[in-house]
Amino acid sequence: MFTSDRHAIVGDLGADHFRFAVADVDQLTIDHLVNFRASDFPSCEEALLSYTKSLGSDPPRRASLAVAGYLDGDRAHMPGSTRTFTTRELKSALSFEELTVSSDAVAVARAAQVLSAHDLHYLCGEQNNMGPRLALAIGNNVRSAVACVDGTLETWAGNMSFGAADDQDLWFVEEIRAALGGREAGSLLSTDALLVLCNLPSAGLENRVTFTTVSEAFTAAMTQPDSSAAAGLARYQLWLFRFIQDVALATGARGGVYLAGELPMKLLPHLKAQASRSPFVRSGGPLSCTTIPVYVVDTLSAVLKGAAMACA
């Protein structure tokens, strides 16, 4: 069935999902896409084995996987999950001739140069195709990678310290630190941090509601502009755009910042509204924050295309 050695199995592995497809690594076309619930399988290996069996007797013998987590040498970890595996063990178990594993941020940064308008939602900045491209995958932490002429490199922007702008800002930072145990950017911009912000007391609010999901908080923020959810969401967006500005300036990301992950997609209407109100708090210098293009990425296609490009 897959007679060309230019076919590869590509995957997007998260705490809640295992997405697999077959990619033509030259054309970057995606076929035979499946979206498994991670909870239906005891391990990544079992899910991938089930997928390869569905492809018939002669599936591609090359694979490239993007993990919504981090790599520690040969071992891949997915935050928010106890699932882990090593590249060597997985390659042997599935009898792959080649197996590449990277973070989802690396995959998105790699694919940024080939993404079309169908893959991207423009937020702000001066659009251009020149210069390094920075990918930020945001969910239960922040994963980052930058692509430039010398290749694609994972960065540790999520470990950046996050300074408070004023006393009020410091109070919010310390509340999240008390709840989640960290004050670096990866903690303050996580899904859990957003929920903490949306559940903090709001002045003049008599009947407080505790939000247990991001969807609940977003609904309250849209329908109750004076609610704690609206205040928390506004604070989170200010922090996110501040972080985008700082890390983009630090990496020289003239080619743009690409926000990936389920959280940016859920935030998209709010981020567009914030971007229309001048999202950055300061500008100036040779690389002004107002010139940096910022996009929200259709994560599924971007991650799988980026995984495929690793096999080219």
Question: In a nutshell, what does this entry contain?
Answer:
The chain has 312 residues and is of the alpha/beta class.
What would your notes on this structure say?
The chain is of the alpha/beta class and about 300 residues long. The protein has ten helices and 14 strands. The chain has helices spanning about 45-55, 85-95, 105-110, 165-180, 185-190, 190-200, 215-225, 230-250, 260-275, 300-310, and strands at about 5-15, 15-25, 30-35, 60-65, 70, 75, 85, 100-105, 120-125, 135-140, 140-150, 150-155, 255-260, 295. The strands form three sheets. A six-stranded mixed β-sheet has the order 9-14-13-10-11-12, with helices on both faces. A five-stranded mixed β-sheet has the order 3-2-1-4-8, sandwiched between helices. Strand 2 and strand 3 form a beta hairpin. Helix 3 (about 105-110) crosses helix 10, helix 4 (about 165-180) crosses helix 6 (about 190-200) and helix 7 (about 215-225) packs across helix 8 (about 230-250). It is globular. The model is unreliable at about 280-285 (pLDDT under 50).
